[in-house]
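hey so u asked for the seq, here:
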Amino acid sequence: MALIKSVNGKEPKWGKGCYFSENVTLAGEITMGDDCSVWFGAVLRADVNAIRIGSEVNIQDLACIHQSRSNPVILEDGVTVGHSAVVHGATIRRGALVGMNSTVLDGAEVGENSVIAAGAVVLQGTKIPANEIWGGVPAKRLKAVESGVSRTFADHYLEYKKWY
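ran it, structure tokens below
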């Protein structure tokens, strides 16, 4: 069973149909919508601010979601956070994808349906518009992306969680 921890009287809450792998950690002020999945080894820690997660979000293996005193984490509906990615005090808008081993830092905002390429580093305070692919270190705009392309990953994980 996942490790679910209360911190300073605040505890994780989630909606219907969520799946948490056995070695996931959820700690503190986390709210999560319906049909989310959090996969093996992921850590969501909300001890000094909140983590707010919409519905149909998947947080893949070994990802780390952590807020900061001045910045909560917001993951809107249909977001995918890839394997070993770090989202720290950032906002990820509806249907966006944060690629494997990428990092999104405090105060950054990833626009609706945008994609952060694997290994990219989105610097503090960066504002990424909707429907763009960003990559590199530091991350820069690579090209436009069709609306809804990144959403296909969230749809896959709605199916995968049924297997578990």
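The chain has one domain: 3-163. The CA atoms of residues 132 and 144 lie 4 Å apart.
lmk if thats what u needed
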